[in-house]
Design brief:
Layout (H helix, E strand, L loop, with lengths): L1 H23 L1 H10 L11 H28 L2 H7 L2 H12 L3 H11 L5 H12 L5 H25 L2 H19 L6 H6 L3 H12 L6 H14 L7 H6 L11 H7 L1 H19 L2 H6 L1 H8 L5 H23 L4 H25 L4 H17 L4 H8 L3 H33 L1 H22 L8 H10 L1
C-alpha cells in the first residue's frame, strides 16, 4: 500500500509536467492554421513569428530557471510546484480571451515560466519515494510530459480552437488544486530543522504510524545524507570517520570543494545536451510539418497521435526497466539504437530508397529508443545524484543548460530543414546519438538503488 500511495502522489506531482507540455506541443497542431489566410487570429503569422511561436517558451524558461533553484530551498518543493504551475493557467487564460498574434506569442512566453517544473517534479518525487522504486517514480515526470503531448495532439486534431483552449485551461487549474493535500518533502523539512514535520511527512508517504520503526530508519538515513562531509572527498571521509564537524559554506564554495559534485554536474550537463540534440524534441514540437514531409501518404494528425502514444508507452516501459536493467545500460544501448534509426531515416528521406512505411517504422523506433535513454535517464540521474546541500543549485544549472539547448534546437530546426533538408538533419542527430553512447560508456556510473552518498563515492572513483 505504501508504494501504491507513493505512486498516486507521484502522479499528482507529475501531472504538472502534463499541463506544461500541453502548450509546449500546441504549435504542432496550430502552425498551419496560424500561417493560413483563414487563421483564427487577427492576422497571419510570418515565418519569424512561427519560429518564435515554437521556441518562445524556452526563452522564458532560461530566464526563470535560476530563480527556481533559489525557491526550491526557500519555499520548498511542494510550494515551488504550485507556484510554477500557475504560468500555464495564466497562458491559457490569455489565449482563450484574445486572438491577437502578440497575445498568443506572449502566452507562449509566459507558459515557459513553468518550464522548470521538469526540474522540480523529479526532485520532489525522488525525495519522498523509497529507493527501491525511486527510478521508476522519478521517470513518471517524462511519462506525464509525453501524455501531455498526446493530449495536445488529440485536442488539436479533434476540437475547435476555442474549445481546446478552455479544456486546457481547466486541466491546468485542476493540477494546482490536486497539489494542495500533499506533504512537503521530508528531506527539505529536515534541512529546515523541522524534524517533527519531517516525521509526519514520512508517515504520510509510507502510510505508517508516527512511532513506527520505519520512520526512525528513514529519518536516520536523511540525517546521514545531510551530515555527509564533502570538504573532503567521499572516500577520504570513509577513511577518516572522526572528521571534524563541517563549517557552514555557501553552495558555490561547496561546488568548488566537492570533486564528486563537479563530476556529477559535468555528466548531468552532457546528458541533458544529449536529451535535446538527439532531436526528438524538434520532431515533437514541429511534428505536423515533419510528418507531412516524412509520411505524405498518412494524415498528419494520425501520425502525430501515434508518435505521442508510442512516446508514452515507451516511457512506461523505460520507467520499469530503469530499476531493473539500470540507468547506464539503458543510456548506452538506447543511444546507439537511436543513432542507427537516425542513419536509416536520413538516408530514406534523403535518397527515397524504400516505401514510406519504412520511414514510419523507423520514426517510431527512434522515439522508443530515445525514450529508453536520453528521454528519461538524464532526468532520473539529475534528481538522485546530488547531495541535499547543493541539489537546488546544480539542478538549476542543469535545467538552465537543458533549456538553452532546447531553445537552440527549436529555433534552428525549421530553418535547418529548409536549408539542408530533413534527411541530412537526421544525420546530425545520429552523430549526437553515437557520441552519447560513447560518453555514457566511459563516464556514466550506475546509480540504481543507491543512496546519494554512495553515488558520490562512485563518481570520485570513476
Amino acid at each position: 500500500m505504501s508504494i501504491i500511495f507513493q505512486a498516486g502522489c507521484t502522479i499528482i506531482v507529475c501531472y504538472s509536467c502534463l499541463t506544461m507540455s500541453l502548450m509546449y506541443a500546441w504549435p504542432s497542431s496550430t502552425i498551419k492554421l496560424f500561417l493560413s489566410t483563414n487563421t483564427t487570429l487577427n492576422r497571419q503569422m510570418d515565418e519569424n513569428e512561427i519560429a518564435l511561436f515554437g521556441s518562445f517558451s524556452s526563452i522564458s524558461a532560461i530566464f526563470v530557471t535560476p530563480f527556481s533553484g533559489f525557491l526550491l530551498d526557500r519555499i520548498g518543493r511542494k510550494n515551488s510546484c504550485i507556484l510554477f504551475s500557475l504560468p500555464q493557467v495564466i497562458a491559457w487564460l490569455i489565449v482563450s480571451i484574445s486572438l491577437r498574434v502578440e497575445a498568443v506569442l506572449g502566452a507562449m512566453f509566459i507558459s515557459g515560466f513553468g518550464g522548470c517544473i521538469l526540474l522540480l517534479a523529479p526532485v520532489y518525487v525522488s525525495e519522498f519515494c523509497q529507493e527501491s522504486v525511486r527510478g521508476m517514480m522519478t521517470s513518471m515526470s517524462m511519462i506525464s510530459y509525453g501524455l501531455g503531448i498526446l493530449v495536445s495532439y488529440l485536442l488539436g486534431g479533434c476540437l475547435e480552437y476555442q474549445t481546446m483552449t478552455y479544456v486546457c485551461l481547466s486541466m491546468s487549474v485542476l493540477g494546482i488544486v490536486m497539489l494542495w493535500p500533499l506533504k512537503e518533502s521530508p528531506l527539505h523539512l529536515m534541512k529546515q530543522n523541522l524534524e517533527e514535520d519531517a516525521v509526519e511527512a514520512v508517515a504520510f508517504y509510507r502510510r505508517v504510524e508516527i512511532d513506527s520503526k520505519v520512520i526512525t530508519q528513514e529519518i536516520n538515513a536523511i540525517k546521514r545524507v545531510l551530515s555527509a562531509d564533502i570538504e573532503n572527498s567521499p572516500e577520504e571521509e570513509s577513511l577518516n570517520p572522526n572528521t571534524k564537524t563541517k563549517e557552514k559554506i555557501s553552495k558555490w564554495q561547496f561546488l568548488k570543494k566537492s570533486r564528486s559534485t563537479r563530476r556529477a554536474l559535468f555528466v548531468a550537463l552532457t546528458l541533458y545536451s544529449a536529451t535535446m540534440f538527439q532531436g526528438l524534441v524538434g520532431v515533437q514540437v514541429y511534428a505536423d510539418p515533419v510528418f507531412e514531409k516524412a509520411l505524405p501518404n498518412m494524415p498528419t494528425t494520425i501520425s502525430c497521435v501515434i508518435l505521442a502514444i508510442v512516446f508514452v508507452l515507451a516511457g512506461c516501459a523505460a520507467a520499469y526497466f530503469m530499476d531493473v536493467a539500470g540507468r547506464r545500460p539503458l543510456m548506452i544501448y538506447s543511444s546507439f539504437t537511436a543513432g542507427i534509426c537516425c542513419v536509416v531515416l536520413g538516408t530514406q528521406i534523403h535518397l527515397h530508397w524504400g516505401p514510406h512505411w519504412i520511414t514510419g517504422i523507423f520514426v517510431y523506433t527512434f522515439c522508443i529508443a530515445y525514450n529508453f535513454g536520453a528521454g528519461t535517464v538524464p532526468y532520473v540521474f539529475g534528481a538522485e545524484v546530488f547531495l541535499p546541500e547543493i541539489k537546488s543549485l546544480v539542478s538549476m544549472l542543469s535545467m538552465e543548460w537543458a533549456w538553452i539547448c532546447n531553445f537552440i534546437i527549436l529555433y534552428i530546426f525549421t530553418p535547418l530543414v529548409a536549408a539542408i533538408g530533413l534527411g541530412p538533419v537526421f544525420y546530425i542527430f545520429a552523430i549526437v546519438c553515437f557520441a552519447s553512447a560513447i560518453f555514457s560508456y566511459y563516464f556514466l556510473p550506475e546509480t540504481k538503488g543507491l543512496p546519494v552518498d554512495v553515488i558520490q563515492t562512485l563518481l570520485v572513483k570513476n
